[in-house]
Amino acid sequence: MTTTDEDLISWNGDGLPPAIEQIRQRIDQLPRWQTIGVMQGWWPILVHLDEQLREVDPSYQLTQVKQKLGTLEVHLKGPVTSDAVHAALETSVAQSRVTCEVCGRPGSLRHSRRGWVAVYCDEHKGYDDEYRT
């Protein structure tokens, strides 16, 4: 079954969609609480990154996936020596800088009153102030 970007962003099923769960399972020595630390708007970016990384190394592993200071951070297990892997990671980070983390539409870096920094579209620009505690 192929999952479209829209399917990922609008996911409201139990748990994570299969494509994201597959990525979560690549996190090495996964603690019970560990999950994918980004919202659904960036899930398509992760799935496309996963496809590229699997082409280079089908058994690659992650140590962490999160949002930090408004951009996607993906940590791979072991040193990254492949130019293709570096390029894929850089492309994903660049995409995250202009993609709303909530809905996947074009966005820009926003600062909330609570001190959070994230990328949101105009519709979600107050998301941190409203939903994060």
What is the radius of gyration computed over CA atoms, rounded to a whole number of angstroms? 15 Å
SS class: alpha+beta
Order of helices and strands: HHHEEHEEH
* Total helical segments: 5
Helix content: 25-40%
Arithmetic mean of pLDDT: 87
Number of DSSP strand runs: 4
- The shape is globular
Q: Which blocks of ≥5 consecutive residues have pLDDT under 50? A: none
Distance between the termini: 36 Å
Strand content: 15-25%
What does this 3D model show about the protein?
- The protein contains 5 helices and 4 strands, in the order αααββαββα.
- By secondary structure, the protein is of the alpha+beta class.
- The strands form 2 sheets. Strands 1-2 form a two-stranded antiparallel ribbon. Strands 3-4 form a two-stranded antiparallel ribbon.
In brief, what are we looking at here?
The chain is α+β, with helices and mostly antiparallel strands and 133 residues long. The chain has helices at 5-9, 18-24, 43-56, 83-96, 127-131; strands spanning 62-68, 71-76, 108-111, 117-120.
Q: What topology does this entry show?
A:
Elements: H1 5-9, H2 18-24, H3 43-56, E1 62-68, E2 71-76, H4 83-96, E3 108-111, E4 117-120, H5 127-131
Antiparallel strand pairs: 1-2, 3-4
Main features:
single chain; 133 residues; alpha+beta; two-stranded antiparallel ribbon; 5 helices
